[in-house]
Write a structure and sequence with these properties.
The protein is 31% helix and 24% strand. It contains five helices and eight strands, in the order E-E-H-H-H-E-E-E-H-E-H-E-E.
């Protein structure tokens, strides 16, 4: 399955994307806002792709040159949330180009229209104002601060 926007192509990650996934999971923005997943080698990245991305319809986002720039998708069954949530992350060097908003908008439409989700949530760290702006641009609204299992700090909870 592939999703397309004017500038982006979103497709399921494969083992061949291991180098990109390794870079993304060790990007300072990922570590600060999502957390350190302990992925340090391409073999670790292949395992992460097979395990983590097989459970949720996540997508590798590629710009017109074919370069992977980030990820965006729906996470189903996150502990502590009452509905599936939209998540995204982009390499720092690709920030500020509107990719997150563009990808999140098409993924949200997919979640609502194809997956039939009446409610889609999202969480961010309280200080991640850039991510919060993306969520607001695609139509999600801040609901409250919540404490998710396994996280020391509260998360800003958004919903459709």
């Amino acid at each position: 399955m592939t999703l397309k926007t004017e500038r982006l192509t979103l497709s399921p990650p494969e083992a061949a994307d291991a180098a990109f996934v390794l870079e993304l999971l060790n990007d300072p923005g990922w570590i600060a806002n999502i957390g350190d997943r302990g992925v340090r080698t391409q073999d670790d990245a292949r395992v992460y792709i097979a395990d983590r991305f097989s459970k949720s319809p996540w997508f590798v986002v590629r710009d017109p040159t074919g370069e992977a720039v980030g990820m965006c998708g729906i996470v189903v069954g996150r502990e502590g949330l009452d509905s599936p949530d939209i998540g995204y992350a982009f390499l720092a060097r690709h920030s500020g180009h509107g990719y997150a908003t563009e990808a999140a908008r098409v993924v949200l439409a997919y979640a609502q229209e194809t997956m039939g989700l009446a409610k889609v949530a999202a969480i961010t760290t309280p200080t991640n104002t850039a991510s919060q702006r993306v969520l607001e641009k695609i139509g999600l609204r801040f609901v409250q601060m919540i404490n998710l299992p396994g996280y020391e700090e509260p998360s800003a909870y958004f919903s459709t």
